[in-house]
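Researcher: Please translate sequence to structure tokens.
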Amino acid sequence: MQTTREIFSFSKKNTHVYLIKNNSIKSTDVDELQLEDDEIRKFVAFQSEKRKKEFIAIRIIVNKILPGKKIKYKSTGAPYFEDHSFSLSITHTKEYVAIGISSEKRVGIDIETVQEKIIHLGVKFMHPIEIKSVNEIDLAKYYTRYWCAKEALYKWSNITGLSFQNDLPIYNQNDIWSGRSLKISNEIIPLEMIEIGEHILCFTY
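Model: Translation complete:
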């Protein structure tokens, strides 16, 4: 019996996010895709089943919402559409693969599973001011939100060598999230924060 490939979607202004479950994908689903030679080589080079399924899931989403668009990768590994018609960001966990797109602005996206171990890592990626602002009732969830926000901003920034702790400040005012990428400008970047079961999804808009 074929597993239903349900694509979940979220939107904020002109940024659109699409999410699919990994368990709805099989590596043999690659036969349904019309891949170019460079994509086939990339797929074959993956050693793990997980990476193959993620590769397929991304293209299933793109073929559904933007048929004909081809994904390429920069030397840094950042994905982009070959015709540059939309900005693109990709993220994944063990359970989900998600992409964010926008025709008006660049986009950054991240999804993470909430785990207690992130609490002990907070001092490495969060500024002391951010740590003081965390809701002590659910530390793991709040630390994960900060990590997702910084990861999304890092992808939005599209430059390497940024310090999560010092270059990507995150602000939370009554659960309205935003941040800045100080190496680029003082512009405030709005962030959408969504809970999906035990996962946190964050994207710029």
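Researcher: Any highlights?
Model: The radius of gyration is 17 Å.
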